[in-house]
């Protein structure tokens, strides 16, 4: 891996929350997620719904942005036993033990079709999760439901065109996984 320079915001996050200290890949991902959340304009005190939270990479950046007066409801259709090298359950348990944990309410095995909230959200976030949808219509159905739950939708996805040759293997692996997931029962 090429040398990567962490910015001040990322170094400050790592120091304050003591997450990902020994994991350079997570630190690089964290920096991207912090920049993404800043671009979304998420502010202190907001109530945020994150759909497709996975292992909590974006969740921690959102929780940092909303501060102690805000909250994050993070949902994922996957089981807490899903994922590697850490399962979703293991990764989020580590997050829950940090000072960010009290700002986050994780829900796994959560089918969004059955998700309800009597209190509206300021923002709903879908970050790098749309390729898990089997059909575009399913994603559209989510967007329609989100309109009734949140004032704003923030959406980010990886670019389908890799910009340097070193990204090719990851692009191929993700493409194969997405294709494979269309042919297996993955609930």
Report on the structure:
Helix content is 39%, strand content 12%. The chain has helices at 8-17, 24-40, 57-66, 88-97, 136-147, 168-181; strands at 47-51, 71-75, 104-107, 123-127, 153-156. α5 (136-147) links the parallel β4 (123-127) and β5 (153-156). The mean pLDDT is 90.
* Portion in helices: 25-40%
Percent of sequence in beta strands:
5-15%
Give the beta-strand count.
Answer: 5
Structural class, from helix and strand content? alpha/beta
Task: Give the overall shape, derived from the CA principal axes.
Answer: globular
Multimer state: single chain
Distance between the termini: 34 Å
Give the SSE order as H and E letters.
HHEHEHEEHEH
Strand order of the largest sheet: 3-2-1-4-5
Q: Give a quick account of the main beta sheet: strands, pairing sense, barrel closure.
A: 5 strands, parallel
Helix-strand layout with pairing:
Elements: H1 8-17, H2 24-40, E1 47-51, H3 57-66, E2 71-75, H4 88-97, E3 104-107, E4 123-127, H5 136-147, E5 153-156, H6 168-181
Parallel strand pairs: 1-2, 1-4, 2-3, 4-5
